[in-house]
Structures are given as structure tokens and as C-alpha cells.
Design a protein that fits this description.
With about 200 residues, this protein is α/β, with parallel strands linked by helices. The chain has helices spanning about 10-20, 55-65, 80-85, 90-105, 110-125, 130-140, 150-155, 175-185, and strands spanning about 5, 25, 35, 45-50, 70, 145-150, 160-165, 185-195. The strands form 2 sheets. It has a 6-stranded parallel beta sheet with strand order 3-8-7-4-6-5, sandwiched between helices. Helix 8 (about 175-185) links the parallel strand 7 (about 160-165) and strand 8 (about 185-195). Helix 2 (about 55-65) runs parallel beside helix 5 and helix 2 crosses helix 6 (about 130-140). The radius of gyration is 18 Å and the shape is globular. It starts with 5 loop residues before the first strand and ends with a strand.
């Protein structure tokens, strides 16, 4: 029987970071690994995780402009963005949509704010919103790419090099702490933590 307190996948440096969330976890591997704190640069072969979609949309658009191939894990959210753009085609209409939707369902506030932030990113991209959404639809490539994923969609997966957006904003306890633990333990060799 394998003990649940041992990580057989993650190297020591990554397990040390994971201990912020699960103090009992120990590294089984002798590999050291690497944890880097700083700014995330998009590079083929790297996976970028975020708690929310809006920061991933921003990075996806930046990759597209630089002609860096991307793979987006998770459901196709571009159809939802197009539908929302039809309902709220301007920034002002988008703000009214957000207020109305939060009033109707306050428990979905964070998800609604995430969609709003993703749409603002598209409005501020310098392209027509429809064109920016279409570029997201057709940017995904098979083969070497920058992998973009929410932490939720990354559960059960692992990559050699993982970067976590807005890591310093993640809380230690509860659901946020669980998400942070999942994100940290997706890295097999190198973990990059965006702080500040």
C-alpha cells in the first residue's frame, strides 16, 4: 500500500512549496526540482495555470500576436464569449449585464466577474471583439505549444514545466488552498510562481 502522504511524482522543491497547503506531504523522489518566483514568459513546452479564465484569455491573445502556438484545455468558452458579445456589445452594456446578472444570482458573482474581465480583455485587445474571439477559436494547435488551463481542468494532469498566474493572491485555506495545492503539484520538474 502506498502512503497518501508521499508524493511519488513531484521533486523535493515542489513538495516543499506544496507543504504550505498540505503540511504532511513528503517527497519520495530524490530529484531536487526547481521553484522560480517571478514573471511568467510564454514559452513552447510550458503549461500556464490560472484560477480564472480571464488571465488566460489575455495570455492567449498575446501568444497569438507573437505567433506562439497555444493549446487551451477545457471546454470551448469562445461560443459563450460570442453569445455574451451579442447581448452586450459595448463596455457600457457589459457593465450593465454584469450588474443585472449578479443581482439575479449573487452566488455566481466570481464566475460572472471572470467572464466580464475576459470580455474587457477582448474589448481592449485593439481588434474588433468578434475577430479577437475568432482568433482564440482557431489558435489551438496540436503539437508543441504553450498549454493554457484553469487549475480545475488541470486536475489529474502533469507537465514538466508549470507556471501559476497570480500565485500570491491564492489563499492557504479552504477551496482556494485546495486549488493552489492542485496547481503546485502539477509540476514534474519546474514550477514558476507569478507574484506581484
Amino acid at each position: 500500500i502506498l502512503p497518501l502522504t508521499k508524493s511519488f511524482r513531484c521533486p523535493r522543491a515542489i513538495v516543499a512549496e506544496a507543504q504550505r497547503y498540505v503540511p504532511d506531504i513528503e517527497a519520495f523522489s530524490e530529484r531536487q526540482g526547481e521553484v522560480i518566483r517571478g514573471q511568467i514568459m510564454e514559452a513552447v513546452g510550458q503549461t500556464i495555470l490560472s484560477r480564472y479564465n480571464a488571465p488566460l484569455v489575455r495570455i492567449a491573445l498575446r501568444c497569438i500576436r507573437k505567433r506562439v502556438p497555444i493549446t487551451y484545455l477545457g471546454r470551448d468558452f469562445t461560443g459563450g464569449l460570442l453569445a455574451l458579445h451579442k447581448k452586450a456589445p459595448t463596455k457600457e452594456a457589459l457593465g450593465l449585464w454584469l450588474t443585472k446578472e449578479i443581482e439575479k444570482n449573487p452566488r455566481r458573482k466570481r464566475k460572472l466577474e471572470d467572464r466580464y474581465a475576459a470580455m474587457l480583455t477582448l474589448h481592449e485587445s485593439g481588434e474588433r471583439v468578434e475577430d479577437a474571439i475568432r482568433s482564440l477559436m482557431f489558435a489551438a494547435k496540436s503539437g508543441p505549444s504553450v498549454v493554457l488551463s484553469t487549475i480545475h481542468k488541470a486536475k489529474g494532469l502533469e507537465w514538466p514545466k508549470v507556471a501559476i498566474l497570480a500565485y500570491d493572491e491564492m489563499e492557504q485555506g479552504g477551496q482556494e488552498g485546495n486549488a493552489a495545492y492542485v496547481a503546485v503539484t502539477r509540476a514534474q520538474d519546474t514550477l514558476i510562481l507569478e507574484e506581484g
